[in-house]
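User: Hi! Is it possible to get a structure for several chains at once, not just one? Here's what I have:
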Amino acid sequence: QVQLVQSGSELKQPGASVTVSCKTSGYTFTNYAMNWVRQAPGQGLEWMGWINTNTGNPSYAQGFKGRFVFSLDTSVSTAYLQISSLTGEDTAVYYCARDWLRAVFDSWGQGTLVTVSS
Amino acid sequence: QSALAQPASVSGSPGQSITISCTGTSSDVGGYNHVSWYQQHPAKAPKLMIYDVTNRPSGVSNRFSGSKSGNTASLTISGLQAEDEADYYCTSYTGSATVFGGGTKLTVL
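Assistant: Yes, the chains can be modeled jointly so their relative placement is included. Here is the combined structure:
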């Protein structure tokens, strides 16, 4: 069955960087785009953007350009989210989600909590 | 891109039906039949409940249904059950991006 397994929780200091991984199994990785979604504590879901798993070309939503980088390692069917220059406002749960059809997210990772605190 | 508008909360008693609205513009909800609905229980990942306005993925109860009129999409849950208590989010394709609604907390009384 389709599975997306994300890396564990992270505690980072302000100014540091973090990388979240999303390892997939149960399907052909390059057949479906991967999206990233953020959920700040007590808040709603926010679409961050997506990456074409065939070409590696990323597309970022407004508000997620500059410090956020989507990447892939197709040899291990894994997508990555890197966030640099972390601030307290980056404290959130980050989800990867498979794009099954256009903007239809049928499978999700379990979420990775990133906490930014000194 | 502004978030789609959803009511902050709705409630209903077991067995009743409720409807959650999701209002956008002609650039998103009104312009595409790519509206989805997700259910999220506390501390859990979202789950796809409805896609492309009216379609249910395999395994989702037929108590869940979707519709759209103009720039407003709706999710209806009939025969409310205790396990339906959760947050619900709509999304829409915009031509170049995806936008989420602000979310609606469903309370089963």
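The mean pLDDT of chain B is 97. The interface with chain A takes residues 1, 3, 34, 36, 38, 40, 45-48, 51-52, 57, 87, 89, 91-93, 96-103 of chain B (CB under 8 Å).

User: Great, thank you!
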